[in-house]
Every structure is written in structure tokens, then in C-alpha cells.
Amino acid sequence: MQLTPRTGARTFTRLLTGLLTGLALTTGALTAPAQAASPYERGPDPTDALLEASRGPFSVATQSVSSLVLGFGGGEIYYPTDTSQGTFGAIAISPGYTARWSSLDWLGPRIASHGFVVIGIETNTLYDQPASRGRQLLAALDYLVEDSSLTIRARIDPDRLAVAGHSMGGGGSLEAADDRPSLQAAVPIAPWNSDKSWPGIQVPTMIIGGESDSIAPVSTHSQLFYESIPSSAEKAYLELNGASHFFPQTTNTTMAKSMVAWLKRFVDDDTRYEQFLCPPPSGSAIEEYRHTCPSS
Questions:
Q1: Measured CA angle at 156 (ends 152, 159), to 5 deg
Q2: 146-191: pLDDT as tens digits
Q3: Per annotation, catalytic residue among 132, 167, 222, 258
Q4: Tens of pLDDT along 86-123?
Q5: Where this protein primarily resides, as one coarse class (predicted)?
Q6: Catalytic residue among 128, 178, 213, 268
Q7: 167 carries an active-site annotation
Q8: Distance between alpha carbon 124 and the CA centroid of its chain, in Å?
Q9: The whole model's pTM is what?
Q10: Closest listed residue to residue 212, CA positions, set 192, 250, 191, 242
Q11: Domains, the chain, with CATH or none
């Protein structure tokens, strides 16, 4: 068909309109919808200053747990006093061999003030081995969500639970994560365990080790644990520059910042905290950081 100037203009317009429509449809198909915020987000948008402060945005109260409780040796609960936020995730933390909760008790209010219920446990005996400490961590979580006499039970989401611990308590957190894959996160700190391989762990796990640890050297403990956990679990390894085995027993900002970010990301599914985990953090306090990079 021969095109006149008028018919040519109409044809060009139709072609251009069709091209633009097709381009819009293609662009729409390739553009992912905006990701909805997690229903478990708690607190304001995070910043370095917020995570490095001695307390987070929530006020915290405490409640003691009797040594007569079944399954573990009692301890201390730290919880946000805010009742307008809905439920909170919970984390149980174990001290190390021959140590009491008081050796780590700065962690209780620090973590709870970011929107978690924390139970720092006393172990049945000071000499309990990692497997026993792992069972006691799980017993403490069960106590939080099942004991009808616990007044704060209604504030805890039973599906958002985590474990952590120092030394043999850290080894115990590996045991607990291996035994209960429904946990949302684990944070072994300077962990010690005679079992070096954990291929069955599927719980997102951050291992924090000390470069100068002579009791649980990272080369024969933390690094081996990290390497044995499958990457499908989501995992990270943070090694603190020059830190000894006892670095968790005094306030450590780098450790606390990464620990809170890990718990917020995986217990609360709060992707606002990915920025503190991936790209990997760096600085003079960090000797090494390995990661799988949390995926949204």
C-alpha cells in the first residue's frame, strides 16, 4: 500500500504507540514488586550509632528464674516493657565452663533493649559439657513459651526463638541448633566443642571468635565449625582482632553490634539490618569476616 503523508503519519503513530505499550508491559514484567516490610520489625530504622550504643530503643525490665526450675539451673530474664509492639522473639544464652551468667550479664539488657526477650541461664552444674548446655538452652526456651506461671509469656512469639553462648555454652548453642532446626538463629561466641563438624545445621548461624584465643583457638574450633555448616543455612564468621577467649566477659561493641544485627535479620526477618552484615563489616576491631550474605 502506498502511504500518503496523512496515512503515513497515522501508521507511524500506531507503530509508535504499540512500541511504547509493549515496552511498558515488558518493563512491568521485569520490575519486581516492592518488598513488604516484615511484620516483626520492631523499633526505628537502625543506624551505626543505635547499634553501637550501650542500649537500644526499648526500656527493659528483669525477672529472676528460680534454680528449682526443670531442665536448667535458673537464671535471669530481660524483656522490653513496651506492650504496644506485639510479640517479641526470644533468645537463650549460656555461660561457659565453670562460669555463671554474671560473666555475660551485660548482654541481657543490651540485646533485650533492641526488642527481644533474653533469658541468661545458669547451668545445672558449672562443669556441664556442650551437649548438656545445648539441652539446657532448649529447656530454657521451652520454659519461656510453655510455663503458664510466667507472666511475660504472652509477649513471646514461640516461633521466633534463638540460642547463643560462650565457650562450652557456644558449643552448646551449636548442639541446640543441630537438635532443633526450627530455631531462627544461633550465635556461638568463642565456642568450644570436641565435635568439629556440623553439616546438619540449617539454622542461620553467626560464629564469633577471638584471634588470640588460646583455649578454643579459632583454627581448631570456630573456623572448623563455620566451614562445616552448609552455606544453605546462612552463616557468618566474625573474628575479633587480638581478642582472647574471654572477650565476651566485658562489654564488646563490635560483637554486640553484629550479634544484634544477626538476631534482628533472622529472628525478626528484618531486612533493614542486612546493611550491617553484607557487605561485610570492617574496621580495626575485625581481623576477619566470612559470610554467605543474607538474602532477602
A1: 155
A2: 999 999 999 999 999 999 999 999 999 999 999 999 999 999 999 9
A3: 167
A4: 999 999 999 999 999 999 999 999 999 999 999 999 99
A5: periplasm
A6: 213
A7: yes
A8: 26
A9: 0.87
A10: 242
A11: 48-291 (3.40.50.1820)
